[in-house]
Design brief:
With 217 residues, the chain is α/β, with parallel strands linked by helices. The protein folds into two domains: 148 residues, Aldolase class I (TIM Barrel, Alpha-Beta Barrel); 57 residues, no CATH class. The chain is built from eight helices and eight strands. The strands form two sheets. Strands 1-2-3-6-7-8 form a six-stranded parallel sheet. Strands 4-5 form a two-stranded antiparallel ribbon. Helix 1 packs parallel to helix 2 and helix 6 runs antiparallel to helix 8. The chain is globular. It binds 1,3-dihydroxyacetonephosphate. The site of 1,3-dihydroxyacetonephosphate (13P) has 12 residues, from strand 1.
Length: 217
């Protein structure tokens, strides 16, 4: 209220463990991701169900994640992780609020030989899960056209971290390389970290424009 924020703000846990999700639900977050993608599907279903019951009893929304098939284990370097649409349907049917599913996306910087997003699989997941809002992780470095196509096929939330970190690092490096930390009180963390913070704001604004999220809150 003091900051005069005029849009709804969610406090969301990203890639929560089973215990982490429970702790954040108890702590009053408005949204949690329980990432059970590394568990066998039966265990992922069981644990996701439990988290959904717990979270929904307190009005907290839940993002779940389906495990990957293929990927590096098959020696297919650069194709990223791909989810099974039938498993996506099983997890979506648990009453979750949004679903993260691999469609060839990768966290961090994309390798030069990246095969791109797998729209065939995304289309099948979208078909299988109906209206379920889909979450695209690894949103950094994906070409704009692919982002737009993903949105047209049901992607409703896109996670971007690495690009924000990179612009922060670049702006901070520039500040120091220009010797600004040695001028006046330029060493004050509030001054030293300001260019990086501003750079993240610019990056976030660009993403909001690209994603079509302006004015949607
Ligand atoms: P990037 O760091 O690749 O943008 O991924 C962010 C993410 O998916 C966090 O969950």
């Amino acid at each position: 209220e003091e900051l005069n924020i005029t849009v709804p703000v969610a406090l969301h846990l990203d890639h929560g463990s089973y215990e982490g999700a429970k702790k954040t639900i108890a702590a009053g977050f408005s949204s949690v991701m329980f990432d059970g993608s590394h568990y066998p599907i039966e265990e992922n279903i069981e644990k996701t169900k439990e988290i959904v019951e717990l979270a929904h009893s307190k009005g907290i929304s839940v993002e779940a994640e389906v495990g990957a098939i293929g990927g590096e284990e098959d020696g297919v370097v650069g194709s990223g992780e791909v989810a099974d649409p039938a498993e996506c349907k099983q997890i979506a049917d648990l009453g979750i609020d949004f679903l993260a599913a691999g469609i060839g996306n990768i966290h961090g910087k994309y390798p030069a030989n990246w095969a791109g997003l797998n729209f065939e699989v995304l289309g099948k997941i979208n078909e299988a899960t109906g209206d379920m809002p889909l979450v695209l992780h690894g949103g950094s470095g994906i070409p704009d056209e692919m982002i737009k196509e993903a949105i047209s096929l049901g992607v409703a939330k896109i996670n971007v971290n690495t690009e924000c970190q990179l612009v922060f690092a670049d702006a901070t490096r520039k500040y120091i390389e220009e010797g600004k930390d040695q001028q006046g009180k330029g060493y004050d963390p509030r001054k030293l970290l300001a260019p990086g913070f501003e750079a993240i704001k610019v990056c976030v604004k660009e993403k909001m424009e690209l994603f079509g999220s302006i004015g949607q809150a």
